[in-house]
Amino acid sequence: MEKEALYYRLGKENLDLLVDRFYDLVFVNDQIAHLFKNDKEEIKGKQRLFLTQFLGGPALYSEKFGHPQMRARHMPHPITETDAIAWLHCMSQAIGSLPVSEALKDELFARFPPTAMFMVNKEEQ
Ligand code: HEM
């Protein structure tokens, strides 16, 4: 039998918790905090919509903002491989703090490294 999409197994409440904890970490991260220039609540809102669809739930981000084109949307922000690793570290910590099984945490985290590496658009200095 096919597994239910991650979004439904995780649940909306845990997704909201994840996004809150993740950006609380990102906004104080020495490596990447400087990249985030807009309002924290606004980016959290966008990320909640995006992750809902990224994890197999309703296409809330596309309904509001059109095709995700995440790499293109990140182009104005110079992202190095070190930045991507810092982003993933915040994500790993935020996922680790969720009240869900270790198996679900592992499955969830595994969705991010390929996408994060795809966002890299700048050589290391
Ligand atoms: C690889 C490291 C990454 C860095 C350094 C990064 C950085 C950023 C920055 C600076 C913004 C703009 C924030 C603002 O408006 O102030 C942004 C927007 C966003 N990022 Fe990332 N990002 C990364 C990876 C990812 C990944 C892997 C995802 C999805 C899984 C993602 C999803 C988003 C979304 C949904 C937005 C909002 C896009 C919009 O404007 O509609 N990012 N990111």
From TrEMBL:
It comes from the Bacteria. The keyword Transcription regulation does not apply. Keywords: Heme, Iron, Metal-binding, Transport. GO terms for molecular function: heme binding; metal ion binding; oxygen binding; oxygen carrier activity. Its cofactor is heme. Gene3D superfamilies: Globins (1.10.490.10). InterPro entries: GlbO/GLB3-like, Globin-like_sf, Globin/Proto, Globin_bac-like_CS, Hemoglobin_trunc. Belongs to the truncated hemoglobin family. Group II subfamily. This is Hemoglobin-like protein.
